[in-house]
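tl;dr need the bound structure. longer version: we got a ligand (zinc ion) that a collaborator sent over and nobodys looked at where it sits. i said id run it. heres the input, straight from their email, havent touched it
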Amino acid sequence: MLFYDLTYRAYLSRTGSRGGGGGGTTPGREDHTLEHVIEEEEGALSCSNCLYPITRVDEKTAVAGAHEHVFANPEGVIFEIGCFRLAPGCEGVGPSTLEFTWFDGYAWQAVVCRGCMNHIGWFYSGSGGSFYGLILNRLVGM
Ligand SMILES: [Zn+2]
């Protein structure tokens, strides 16, 4: 941006158009689109490891009566998860299975962050639809 300003000033002094009309709009305006994108990321929930945007607060949904659930896997590790309709920032790995599922009738598949490939939760699919169960302490921005 600084580079752009300097070139623009050089351009003005060369053409001698400076001082005419006080200069309202400048070509530099287009740079504001960058700030705009950052503002739109408000409400984003990102990977706590690499800050890659995973989902958004407004994708929160309730499954089996609640958004948040606490489960233990067969190894006894406890996970606090939140349910989200969509999570474009993660991708499924491995097979989908009903074995040890935490949600009756929903098969699960592990999902990882697209940014750093860390395990971040599970994708559940069943006859009632599909959703993501994401490990809440692996998300930041809540
Ligand atoms: Zn990540």
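gonna send this back to them w/ a short note. Confidence is low (pLDDT under 50) at residues 1-13, 15-26, 28-39.
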